Amino acid sequence: MCSTRAEYLLEISQELARFNIEWRRQFRCPTCLRDYPLDSKEITEEHIIPVSQGGKVTTFLCKSCNSMFGAKQTRWLSDWIDLNEGGTPFHGDPRKQKVKVSSNGNTLTASLSMGEDGGIDIFPDKSRSDPKQYEAYWKDKTATNIKIDIQTPVFANEDALGVGFLTAAYGLFFKHFGYSFIFQTILDPVREQILNPDKLIIKWNYLLEIPKPWILEPGVGLMRFGDDIFPVAIIYDHIVILPNSKKLHPDTTSSENTSTKIISLDPSAASRFQGRCLGPAIVLCDFQPLIEPDFVRKATVPPQHIWIDGW
Ligand SMILES: [Zn+2]
After folding, report:
1. Which of 58, 108, 153, 305 has a Cα at 20 to 30 A from 9?
2. Which of 93, 87, 216, 238 has the alpha carbon at shortest distance from 163?
3. Ligand 1 (single-atom ion) residues, CB below 5 Å
């Protein structure tokens, strides 16, 4: 087993070199595809399920991708799990739970927390408020009908939360199938969506809800939709459908055409990062290629085929 971060990173880079020997001792960020020398401080570890929610499974990303995901995707996912696990819709850190307080047309920004008596405490934040409105608010002795607008980002945009699930699923497949998964151009729209979480880029349905019980350990698998099989990731209470190597998305995700069976890929993935790197790899199920890297024909090392027993 790889025990240290350095050993794990070395394996990832050795796998990269198996695709092209000139990429030795480099790390390619799985989302932005930029290259970094293996000893770069820009390579960071990322939790698939946010560490604040007890997530243990990690993968690697460049610092710039990681910090963007931290502020957006990871945060939304964390808020969602928090909410479903009986937490409050408020941010875990009250200083970060922004609210807008307004009266008579003057609005100020405040933060909010739950007091020990169960009441809600509001702390005006002068530095984040419009100075004129802030002054006017406090000078206004006639202030009535005070309106408090609580901003809970997780509810603000369902599409954004979807990108949180998508990012986690993509990271999990990179962890298990390495660059064999990443080097598929069919995933370009997925990467574009992940790198632009505020824009709606993927217009097809890639999320299915799982009825309880929810699963805290993420997993990778295969699901059949009609005649086509797709790689899926199980992230908390959702199944995330990723493109297969030939097709971006299922024709339909309606329950009549979808087998509820998920074939777990964890056993086939488990043999990978254990002191040896097996990429390039082609993953097939029922003769359908599901993961097939584009560079496989020019790769330094010939690809191995991973056959999964299907339906
Ligand atoms: Zn990156």
Report:
1. 305
2. 238
3. 29, 31-32, 62, 65
58-62/26-28 β-pairing: unpaired
Q: 246: CA distance to ligand 1 center in Å? A: 25
Distance, CA 80 to ligand 1 centroid (Å)? 24
Q: What's the chain's average pLDDT?
A: 85
The radius of gyration computed from the CA coordinates of the chain, to the nearest angstrom, equals 23
Q: pLDDT of 120-139, one tens digit each?
A: 777 888 887 888 888 888 88
What separation in Å is there between the alpha carbon of 43 and the centre of ligand 1? Answer: 9
pLDDT digit string, tens, across residues 159-196? 889 999 999 999 999 998 999 999 999 999 999 999 99
Q: How far apart are CA 68 and CA 303, in angstroms?
A: 34
Spatial CB neighbours of 64, under 8 Å, sequence gap ≥ 6 = 32, 42
| Residue 63 alpha carbon to ligand 1 centre in Å | 7
Q: Where are the domains of the chain?
A: 5-81+157-308, 94-151
Instruction: Kindly give the pairing relationship between strand 304-308 and strand 281-285.
Output: parallel
Rounded CA separation 178/91 (Å): 34
Asked if residues 114 and 90 have their Cβ atoms less than 8 Å apart, the reply is yes
CB 161 within 8 A of CB 235: no
Residue for token pair 């009250």: 94
